[in-house]
Every structure is written in C-alpha cells, then in structure tokens.
Amino acid sequence: ETADREKPMNITADNCSLDQKTQQSVCVGNVVVTQGTLVLRADKLTTRQDEKGNQFAQGEGRPVRFKQKLDTGEMLDAESLRFDYDGGKGLMTLIDKAWVKRNQDMVVGDTITYDMNTEYYQAQSKTGGRVNITLMPKKKEASK
Amino acid sequence: MRSLTILTLPLMLLLMVGALIWSLSRVAMDAAVEEKTDPNLPDLFATHGVLMRYDEMGSKRSELIASEVTHIPTQDTMLFTQPKLIQTEPGKPTITVVGVRGKSILKASQVWFYDETTLRRAPFGEQAELIVHGRDIRIDQGTQQAHSDAPVVADMGPHHAEAVGFVADNVAQTLVLKSQVKMTYVPTARIALVGSAPRQ
C-alpha cells in the first residue's frame, strides 16, 4: 500500500552490524523485512537513512522475494536476484531475472522498476534481451 | 669431672634456649611470610568504593562506584558489588554501565559486568541515547569495546533491536548484533531524534 513507507520497518536476520556514523546497517542470513503490507525476503540487506529519515535499502538473494498488497486490495508478488529501494522517491528496482505478478498479469525482464506512489511498474531488458508481458483479459461480467 | 659438667651446664642450657628461640622465630616467620604472600587471598576490602582513572593529561577517563570493593593481588583483581562505571572520553559520548556484580583486572583495563546489566551511551550529535539491556558484559578499556554472548535488547530513540550476543565499539561507533536479530526502524526517526523540525 502506498502508506507502507510511513510505517515502521521491522527486520529479522541471523546477524547485523550497525554503523552509527553513517547510520547504515548490514544484515546477513535469512533476512525478512516487513513494513506495513510489504514483506521482503533476502540473503543480505544493507539499509541506510538520510537526514529526513527516509529509508534506502539494497539487497540480494537467491532470489529476493517481494510481496505487497496494493491500495486496490490486489496482491503483488515479485522476485529478482538483487534489488534497490529508494524510500525517498518510493521506487523499488528489481535487478537480474526479475518478474512481477499482479493477479494473473505478469511482467518479466532484466530490470523492473516499481513506483510505490503510483503502483506502476516499468520493465527493461539488457541489450539484445526481451521484456515479456502477459496480460490476462478480465472476464466479462455475465449479462443480466 | 663434676666441675666440668657444672661449668658447661649453663652453657648447654643457654645453647638449648637459643636453639629453641631460633627455631620458634623461624616457624613464626615462615607462617607470617606464607600468609602475606598468598596472592589469591583478598588483601583489601572496602565498602562504598569510588575508583577513578585519569589519562596522562589529567582528565578523568573513567569512574567506578561500588557498594563493596575487594582487591586480590593476582592480576590486580578487583571484585565489585553493585558497580556503576562511567566512562568519559573527550569528544566521545559518555558511557554508563550499571550492574549487579563486577570484576576488573590489570588496573581495570578489562572489566566484567555479570548478571543483569544496563549500558547507556549519552546522546551525541544527532544520535539519540543508546540504551542496551544485557548481561555478562565485558568491557575492554584498551580497545573501547563492550562484548557479550548473552541476549541483549537495544533502544536508540524510536529504533529497537534484540539479539543474542553483541560487540559495541565506542571508537568506530559500531554495534554488531551477533545472532537472532530483530530490529525496528521508524522511518521519520531522524526528525524525531533531532527534535521537532517544522513539517514541510
């Protein structure tokens, strides 16, 4: 949900190290991040916070799994090998073998950028690669 | 023959008495020396002790207050009851550690806090106060690090963390949470930490 970014971020992991000076933390092993309806699972997570308190995170996994409920109530699922999260702009970028599934619609690409403000996502492929989009037609409502 | 015996008898007696005194004093001295040299027995016991450490410039680096203090010569060991350690270093946040039982060795260069222990690092710059509740914490004054392998809970402003085992480094200002980590970040924490900045 778009309000997720304002919510506290909970992180569990095998171990973490925090650097007070840079306000950066690195967590490794079974990392699970929950923030509102957003749930993210990764092997490694690096988080940082800027002066305004915005959160920034990078991570990797085999793969990274990402799940979030949209304002419409639909569930959005995604996976990739790496990700980059900019809490200031509300952008989540999924990198390497990325796919996003929303209900039955699916997008596959090398990089998928998901805008958490508008809930839009944009897929790109490496040069020579292809983006693959599957849109499932909505069933017509039965005529009365 | 009799006169010879008469002559020598007092001398003999004198010798015997002298030998007796000598052997008694040897035994007594040995006993005393043995008692004094046992390094594993306390040689000092104090109540309401205050120990302070100063650096070469004469500024106070740490102060340790305890309801009971026992000193044992081996490794210059000090045992404390209800210890409270206040560590102040110029340019660094003050650290206060309060415990139930404590021990220090080698001129308090290494300090242990056993049982429930609370470590507080004062607010510093933009950083809120850091409060760590743990147990069996060891502090190395040389490296300015605090270690523990026991469960620990840490709070800094609205941020919260739990783990089993930690290493806090006051010089590098880092905190390593060794296992079973649970953390909570509050996004707009920075404003909360620094005070109520006007909301755009």
UniProtKB/TrEMBL annotation, chain B:
Q: From which organism does this entry originate? A: Chitinibacter bivalviorum
Return the InterPro entries for the record: LipoPS_assembly_LptC-rel, LPS_export_LptC, LptC
UniProt name for this protein: LPS export ABC transporter periplasmic protein LptC
Q: Which GO terms describe its molecular function?
A: glycolipid transfer activity; lipopolysaccharide transmembrane transporter activity
Fetch the PANTHER family from UniProt: LIPOPOLYSACCHARIDE EXPORT SYSTEM PROTEIN LPTC
A Pfam family? LptC
Query: Which of UniProt's keywords are assigned here?
Result: Cell inner membrane, Cell membrane, Membrane, Transmembrane, Transmembrane helix
**What are its GO cellular component terms?**
outer membrane-bounded periplasmic space; plasma membrane
Endoplasmic reticulum as a keyword of this entry, yes or no, is no
Tell me the superkingdom of the source.
Bacteria
Question: Is-annotated flag, keyword Membrane?
Answer: yes
